[in-house]
Amino acid sequence: MSILDKSSLADNPLGYNNSMNNAVIPQKICILGSTGSIGISTLEVIDLHPDKFKIESLTAYSSVDKMFKQCQQYKPSYVVMVDAESAEKLTKQLLAADLTMTVFSGEQALIEAAQAKDVDTVMAAIVGFAGLMPTLAAVKAGKKVLLANKEALVTSGQIFIDALKTSNAQLLPIDSEHNAIFQCLPSFEQQRPGMCQLASSGINKILLTGSGGPFRTFAFADLDNVTPDQACAHPNWDMGRKISVDSATMMNKGLEFIEAKWLFNLHVDDIQVVLHPQSTIHSMVQYIDGSVIAQLGNPDMRTPIAHALAFPERIESGVEPLDFFNSKAFEFEAVDFNKYPNLKLAIDACKLGQGACTALNAANEIAVAAFLNEKIKFTDIAKINETSMNKFVSEEVITIDDVINLDKRVRSFTSTLIGNFI
Ligand code: NAD
Ligand code: MG
Questions:
Q1: What's the mean pLDDT in 314-342?
Q2: Does the pLDDT at position 244 exceed 50?
Q3: Full-prediction pTM beyond 0.70?
Q4: Regarding the domain delimited by 3-173, which CATH topology (the fold level of the hierarchy) does it fall under?
């Protein structure tokens, strides 16, 4: 039996976002990537509101032990472990513990989980390109989609937004910067992600803040020898390893730049990156009358997760409020692009078009994995990304198959390139 068969056994006639208007009916949630940093933070918020949310399905790649514990606690209707061996192992553990939920495996099962009828809300928290197809499936199925997986929007851009336009999905940003921008917009603009007309709402700049990562105060020459653990030790945020390295290179801010362009229908000149080492201001929106509206809070992803889960209502997240009397001064700096060549590459890619963005993302995933496996130096990441992006920059990307094909070819090219670096 597939997930779709299983899901259709019980229909959901009330639609995808009924539950926040009716406290009796909990929102049924699918978490794509439940064993990761965002997945776990989502479950922590849900723990505070057992009347409002019900876990329908959980998915992960291969973390059997974490998933087993989540199954014991949340008793989802079904689970996906993409890796077949891990799915088998989990099935055995669940049987031994008298737990009856079905375990599916494979990439198709992720897509089916994301579009299952019994699901109202999908938390898209898989890391990397692997999140694209299930996230897109959730959009096409008209779900309330909480978008953490920025790589989905970066790699498919207009295709993703077109799918949003033609479905009745509701897209809410989880990335703290985009969630902050969203919160600073007039409600009229919040109703139309991907189709905003911010100039007509008196907005003339989006100020995307970034901490600068763990190496902000390092001399560029010293970055050659930094280790994966140093790169993953972010000063303010506790995140998965891939996004942590991206934060250290500021590729993360570059991916967010591209994500912001699509989410808020912006031109590249409308977005400015501002270094703000304290990560207290999560981003800002500048209006033509001189007003700048910012969203502030402790750097904890449970805040944007709670915001999106409950939107347009507000619920508690478990995050402590800011303590203004004992906080450090807020600092702001301009970005030194010589120190953060990956950020420059991503902004260039955003100007160059979809081929460049899809290629840069694929190259970066391969290069970051090679750095984490200690095959290349931290400073090699940008060199590899640049070579790969330049090679594929003029590729035409119109359909989702174009995206998938290009991603595959860039991965292969980049892997060979890294082989030559070693
Ligand atoms: P993570 O590495 O902690 O977790 C990733 C999750 O995805 C895990 O559950 C893992 O099992 C699953 N996964 C990994 N590879 C997979 C594959 N090939 N197929 C299916 N599932 C797979 O990552 P994270 O830090 O939680 O980040 C998740 C996403 O959210 C990323 O796109 C990241 O950019 C974005 N995001 C994260 C944060 C944060 O604070 N962690 C903040 C903003 C945005
Ligand atoms: Mg972010």
A1: 94
A2: yes
A3: yes
A4: Rossmann fold (3.40.50)
